[in-house]
Amino acid sequence: MVERFLEQFPAIQAASMDPRLKKSMEKDRLQRVSDEDFSKAEQFVKVTKILYTSTLCVYAERSPTLGQILPILDKLQHHFTVNDEDSSFTKTIKNTIWNDLSQRYQVDSIRQFLEEGTALDPRFKSKVADEVWTRLEEELIRRTPGQIQYQQMEHGLEERAGAGDQAQSSSDEDKEAKALCP
Q1: Whole-prediction pTM value?
Q2: 3-class DSSP state for residue 175?
């Protein structure tokens, strides 16, 4: 909306100078918009445009994934880092926005979930810390023995149910499960 105002401001200002218009409050307000105000509006649009782009990035995907959240937050953190050449107005905007964004996704369980989702997303898997891969590996190992036991029980029930059908060969999954168990 601010960007659209900036685009249309010269035309609005020219139209408000038309002598056929009666002196009104809107004309006075437009005349009070200084170059400094216009400059601040331009700075605001420049700083906040990445928020719009980030929203479109997630929204435009056919099936957005949680693996996108942390990489986008990293880019936003980099963008909202205050630089020496930033004006005080820009510094204030950047600090305010980043202070709000940095409070999000700080609960350990949610953060770990997002990290694991990012690791499993092929677009971002190389940008994940080794500890995340270790955590995923440990979780997979923790769940695997239970899964193998379940498959063995299921296979045992199938054998009992089809005791007369001895000619049927085991599937590759059953062979792998038997090979892994002691």
Answers
A1: 0.60
A2: helix
- Cα(176)–Cα(172) distance, rounded to whole angstroms? 6
Q: Residue 127 and residue 122: Cα distance in Å, rounded?
A: 10
Chain-centroid distance of CA 85 in Å reads 28
| Amino acid letter for position 154 | E
- Using alpha carbons only, give the angle 86, 58, 116 rounded to the nearest 5 degrees: 95
Range 51-54 contact pairs with CB under 8 angstroms and sequence separation of 24 or more:
51/76, 51/97
Half-sphere exposure of 77 (CA within 13 A, CB side): 9
Concatenate the DSSP letters of all residues of 124-155 into one string. TGGGS-HHHHHHHHHHHHHHHHHHHHHHHHHH
26 and 16 in contact (C-beta within 8 Å)? yes
Quick: pLDDT tens for 4-35: 777 777 776 676 666 666 565 555 666 666 77
Element containing residue 7 per DSSP (H, E): helix 2-16
Q: Which two tokens stand for residue 115?
A: 């990290």
